Amino acid sequence: MKILITGATGLVGSAIVELCHKKNFDVNYLSTSKSKIVSNPNYKGFYWNPSKGEIDLECFEGVTSIINLAGVSISKRWTESNKQAILNSRINSLKTLRSGVENVDSSKIESFISASAIGIYPDSLSNYYSEEEEAVDDSFLGSVVQAWEKEADTFKKFNFSVAKIRIGMVLSDKGGALPEMAKPINNYVGAAFGTGDQWQSWIHINDLSRMFLFVANNKLQGVYNGVAPNPVCNNKLIREIAKQLKKPLILPNIPEFPMKLILGEMSYILFASQRVSSKKMEEEGFNFHYPNICKALEGVYSDASKVKQDAPVSQTEFLS
């Protein structure tokens, strides 16, 4: 199997690349920075510029699956310019990829998988969302994901399977939301947000990377939720993080108003509630290694600790 990955150097992309190498899958990846392009036997980089619709067509040579993860991070303050960049980066990446596929022999390509997000589901404390849900959240994120998925659907005209994975909160010590949530807890100022009753649908980074390859390998089609089987409320999530870090939670929950002052519209993601089902993916035969939040966080921090312990000791560290 040879997989073309966009966003290969990001949090999720890096994990997928690592898993591909463990399975001896070859990886081609696209980069907007020519200086970051490397060419190894099983890991080759190619230049593209989605904002201008430019792509090196050689990136498709021998490719059997395409995984699209490209998109500007939503973690910057949602100014009008940043909001436009968030949307454009996702749409332009898909348009450029599609144009590339149109201009090569795509007969060897068997599957196309695009990232999406659970932010498409309406904010609710009571609903339990499956992929069949048709309502769309009336927020900026909801509109972005809706447009993102609509663009991904244009790949259905090709003769390969097309799938979208709606990703929840990714648990990893290397990036994403978890390190940001852990910082205040480590500094004894951690607390849940708002009532803390809002649902957090999460997934361990290892399960998510396995899921993308599972979908590619099985040529699955349609929408799948990239979340673990057991969502938790924000109160429980914060408690479990504190437990793993062996830190007390002293402060009361953080009200919504001050976070709006600090983050503006982006504060919405701290208080939105989406309880999302993984049943459809499980029915396809996918087995989660980390189905529960306790085990998942334990896995994240034990892996981080192991990496730290296995790291070579510098002379300075040895002498200190």
**Structural class per helix/strand content?**
alpha/beta
Using the coordinates shown, work out and report the CATH topology: Rossmann fold
Distance between the termini: 48 Å
Number of helices: 11
Total discrete domains: 1
Word description of this protein:
This protein is an alpha/beta fold. The protein has a single domain (2-305), classed as NAD(P)-binding Rossmann-like Domain (Rossmann fold, 3-Layer(aba) Sandwich), CATH 3.40.50.720. It contains 11 helices and 13 strands. It has helices at residues 11-22, 80-102, 140-152, 177-186, 205-218, 234-245, 256-263, 268-271, 279-283, 293-310, 315-319, and strands spanning 2-6, 26-31, 39-40, 43-49, 54-55, 65-68, 111-117, 161-167, 169-171, 199-200, 202-204, 222-226, 232-233. Strands 1, 2, 3, 4, 5, 6, 7, 8 and 12 form a 9-stranded mixed beta sheet that branches. A two-stranded parallel sheet has the order 9-11. A two-stranded antiparallel sheet has the order 10-13. It starts with a strand and ends with a helix.
Entry summary:
InterPro entries: DUF1731, Epimerase_deHydtase, NAD(P)-bd_dom_sf, SDR39U1. By secondary structure, the protein is of the alpha/beta class. It has helices spanning about 10-20, 80-100, 140-150, 175-185, 205-220, 235-245, 255-265, 270, 280-285, 295-310, 315-320; strands at about 1-5, 25-30, 40, 45-50, 55, 65-70, 110-115, 160-165, 170, 200, 200-205, 220-225, 230-235.
